[in-house]
Amino acid sequence: MINFKKVSLLIAVLFLSACNSESQGNSSMTDKSTANIEPFVCAFEKDHLPEVDPELEKQYQEVRAYEKKQIPNKDEVNITNRYQLLADQGHWKAASQLATRYLYGKGTEQSYFKAVEWFQWMADRDIPLGYYNLAVMAEKGLALKEDKEGAWKYYHRAAQFGNPQAQYRLGEIYIYIKREDDIGVAYHRCAEQQEYRNSADALGSFYQIAEENYPKALYYYQAAAALGRINSMLTLEGVFRDGDFGYEINETLADKYDKLYDRLDKNPDLKFPNLSEMLPLPHHPTLGRYNPETDQNEMTE
């Protein structure tokens, strides 16, 4: 019988996958893209974000709330203009929203070049997300000339400033392209500690496939599911529905994951911070259960 949930779930790609007539521009990166790639040290993005003016932040949150009130919002031009006013006053979150709106032509004419200008504005102020978005645009050749080396350096710069998206991207590259597992895992673990659910799921995949350490894999799949990653919740359901990886079939547990899946399907913003307490993972018959405090599998209850 076809599992329509599995069929309906598509593999996520980088958000900058489209390309139009502006994508082959000759804009070049600034000197900051040539920064030396230093050995990775885990950094958190929250420690590298500039303070924002309280009054501007209040206005920004009002715009965000208004934007989310109706989707699709019928007042997109006004929303874009309000972000523009805040960005012009130095509010970096509004600048990021504005750049994304130029990227997709939301409430304004689409312009990869204007998106790059605002992402560069962020990077010039060492705002991690600015570096990350410039990396993606350079890698894809959107407004910037396609520049894999420059993108590589920008990803590292963003990761050094704690951007979890960049840490995730580098984790995947180091593991699956460069075959440097230790470095890739370090990037993913850092992003996972910042509650970046895609890295939590990536760690689950790594320990499942590369090490066949199924208790450790399930620990990270569950961490991703707790952060609201619907595919990870589906993975957990399937393990106990089908008895995958040598686990015993447990229909009761599978049904509970299935109900949480349905809740996530209706509301993708849900998180389950107490998931590991709500649904403790059972012991694997031969490998035990993973203990994150000792980083070991343990056979005793």
UniProtKB/TrEMBL annotation:
<dbReference type="InterPro" id="IPR006597">
    <property type="entry name" value="Sel1-like"/>
</dbReference>
<dbReference type="InterPro" id="IPR011990">
    <property type="entry name" value="TPR-like_helical_dom_sf"/>
</dbReference>
<keyword id="KW-0732">Signal</keyword>
<dbReference type="InterPro" id="IPR050767">
    <property type="entry name" value="Sel1_AlgK"/>
</dbReference>
<protein>
    <submittedName>
        <fullName>Sel1 repeat family protein</fullName>
    </submittedName>
</protein>
<feature type="signal peptide">
    <location>
        <begin position="1"/>
        <end position="23"/>
    </location>
</feature>
<dbReference type="Pfam" id="PF08238">
    <property type="entry name" value="Sel1"/>
</dbReference>
